[in-house]
Amino acid sequence: MKEEIIIAGFGGQGVLSMGKILAYSAIMQDMEVTWMPSYGPEMRGGTANVCVILSDRKIGSPIVTKYDTVIALNQQSLDKFEKTVKPGGLLLYDPNGITRAPERTDIDIHRIDAIEVAAKLGNSKVYNMAVLGAFLKLRPVVDMENVDKGLAKSIPARYGNLIPMNKAAIEEGMEAVE
Amino acid sequence: MAEKILMKGNEAIAISAIRNGVDGYFGYPITPQSEVMETLMKEKPWETTGMVVLQAESETSSINMVYGGASCGKKVMTSSSSPGVSLMCEGISYMAGAELPCVIVDVMRGGPGLGTIQPSQSDYNQIVKGGGHGDYHNIVIAPASAQDMYDFIDWGFELAFKYRNPVVVLADGIIGQMMEKVELHPMKPRRTDEEILQAAPWATTGKPATRSRNIITSLSLDADIQEEFNRKLKHKYQLIEDTEVKYSEYMCDDAEYVFVAFGCSSRICEAVVDELRAEGIKAGLLRPITLYPFLAKEIARLGRQARSMMSVELNLGQMVDDVRLAVSGSCPVYFYGRQGGNIFTPEEIVREFKKANSLE
């Protein structure tokens, strides 16, 4: 099994930490992972993205140009990465602020209104966990028990009280994906 | 089972320094390696192992602090990125001249000048051929994963003390910024005063009546003495070249086309080899792990077996010169590179490889 994923959105949406939690969950499942962020001046006030690769085997190139899954959380990211989904792959996007819907017909397209999930839970910071839940519902690449462990490893101990809220957002995201 | 942690290559450098008994880190922040000092400051090793962590006022200052610590036989290190390492080159030459052990981590970014902050391998010539003035070599080791970043600190100090020579861990922005699984090895305590006397009898640790003074200097005003010293260095470098070459091979046994790539480029070339093999093209990859000493013998051997070689680097073509020297005309040697912080994709390399070899 190998899953090549790119998560792209605005800086501040929790794109990098969502990738980190996903990667840590995969480590808990004894998989190999790479987490490669875009870094540089383009991040400040602009878009942020992270490429996460999960595999049963040692990972060669951490740089890929076609993805099994693209998660696009704003219009720029959708425009940039829609064409990079492998045929038959998954495109998951947040419809908020989207003025041009995805057009491809050879891929699996799903939507997650993660702003609504976060609003329902009363915490805008768990936005990214709602997206993660939606992804895991569509691509159960990691068992939920390992996601729990990944969350615990990724969130600093002093914020351990926030784990249940993050988990609730993952579960709500699983329900809300369409 | 050893603990496995998800961390950036830069974080692995810091955690490894603490866990491998490093005595001091002196540095100055610069992208893309600022997480090294950030992690050290967060971990506060001065409260646990007693390791000193100090932000100097400049890179010039930090390398000279390393000079001072190393003179006392301590395991000391610094890290920086390309423009910062240029500022350190005077100090590195002095340390080579004074035969001082240290580890310098260079997480390369695009140049020349201030360049970009994105990944690059454009300082191969600078670091592998010296960087500072004078007839000297750094021992240069090139990590290709976060685990390598962790492991190469300890290995780097081992080499540095074995040969009394600066060791450069030559990484790049990808290896520094990428997070991967890192397995932590058991902690090594810092050396005791007695252990320092054993490991570094040449160090300025206080002169007992039983021996003459230890002098650390790179200055000699007598040409004959200096020449004798240069020849002593040559002898040391020869020993290093004879014994410390390290590399890895991927599908080279029956390879007709051999890629040569180090660091992050070697990872990307693995995917290239897989893709070409899937098409029935017998490709292989030779990854130098030590850049100095260089794997000239292995390249020469594969050069006799291969139809062609291709050096793939994030620069305008630097290591390719050494590959061509080693191959010595027995097969064509091509080059493909990207610059300025841009990174090649496996598909792009496959395309350029086919173009070079007329395989389209």
Task: Characterise this structure.
With 178 residues, chain A is α/β, with parallel strands linked by helices. Chain A is built from 6 helices and 6 strands. In chain A, helix 2 links the parallel strand 4 and strand 5 (85-93). Chain B folds into 2 domains: 3-197, Thiamin diphosphate (ThDP)-binding fold, Pyr/PP domains (Rossmann fold, 3-Layer(aba) Sandwich); 249-356, Rossmann fold, CATH 3.40.50.920. Chain B is globular. The model of chain B has no long low-confidence stretch (mean pLDDT 97). Classes of the chains: A alpha/beta (178), B alpha/beta (360). Chains A and B meet through helix 1 and strand 2 of A and strand 1, helix 7, strand 8 and helix 10 of B. Strand 2 (32-37) of chain A pairs antiparallel with strand 8 (179-183) of chain B, so a sheet runs across the interface.
- What integer value in Å does the Rg of chain A equal? 15 Å
**The first-level CATH class name of the largest domain in chain B:** Alpha Beta
- Spans of at least 5 consecutive residues with low confidence of chain B: none
Structural class of chain A: alpha/beta
Helix content of chain B: 40-55%
Overall shape of chain A: globular
The major pleated sheet of chain B works out as:
7 strands, mixed
Sheet with the most strands: spatial strand order of chain A: 2-3-1-4-5-6
Oligomeric grouping of the chains: heterodimer
Query: Mind telling me which CATH architecture of the largest domain in chain B this is?
Result: 3-Layer(aba) Sandwich
Number of strands of chain A: 6
Helix run count of chain B? 13
Structural category of chain B: alpha/beta
Neighbour order of strands in the largest sheet of chain B: 3-2-4-5-7-6-12
Hey, roughly how much beta strand do the residues of chain A contain?
Answer: 15-25%
When the domains of chain B are counted, the total is: 2
How far do the termini of chain B sit from each other? Answer: 49 Å
Radius of gyration of chain B: 21 Å
What's the CATH topology name of the largest domain in chain B? Rossmann fold
Q: N-to-C terminal Cα separation of chain A, in Å?
A: 25 Å
